[in-house]
Specification:
It comes from Flavobacterium polysaccharolyticum. Keywords: Heme, Iron, Metal-binding, Transport. This protein has one domain (20-129): Globin-like (Orthogonal Bundle), CATH 1.10.490.10. Helices cover 71% and strands 0% of the residues. The chain contains 5 helices and no strands. The longest helix is centred in the last third of the chain and has 32 residues, at 98-129. It starts with 8 loop residues before the first helix and ends with a helix.
């Protein structure tokens, strides 16, 4: 059976819930997420529903800047590569179509931007310590 494309908020919730279930169980990035989020998973998931609903369904339910909470995380390119691999596998297992492809592209762009910005801020901090 060929999966459907992402169509509505229920699909966004399915995508987000499945993805973060996989993330939380992952040996490489699960500990980073679980330590940072702690007991606030329901709040985080709600925010992610709104984020992806805004990006993919053009329903403006998310406002804010997604980068600042990630700025101080103890992560590097290997973490972002793992995050992206889990995201891609999750999407491909659940959906197929233009919005599913858009989700993967947006995630890839975000991962690359977050990694670049984190490295930039770390380098700037190292320069200040010299």
């Amino acid at each position: 059976m060929i999966p459907n494309d992402i169509q509505d908020l229920n699909d966004i919730k399915k995508m987000v819930d499945t993805f973060y279930t996989n993330v939380r169980q992952d040996e490489a990035i699960g500990p980073v997420f679980n330590e940072k989020i702690g007991e606030r998973w329901p709040e985080h998931l709600e925010k992610m529903y709104r984020f992806w609903q805004t990006i993919l369904l053009d329903t403006h339910t998310y406002s804010g800047s997604p980068f600042p909470p990630h700025k101080q995380l103890p992560v590097d390119k290997t973490h972002f590569d793992r995050w992206m691999a889990i995201f891609t596998t999750t999407i491909d297992s659940l959906f197929a179509g233009p919005l599913a492809e858009e989700a993967k592209l947006r995630a890839k762009n975000m991962a690359e931007m977050f990694n670049y910005k984190i490295e930039y801020f770390r380098q700037a901090e190292r320069e200040q310590l010299k």
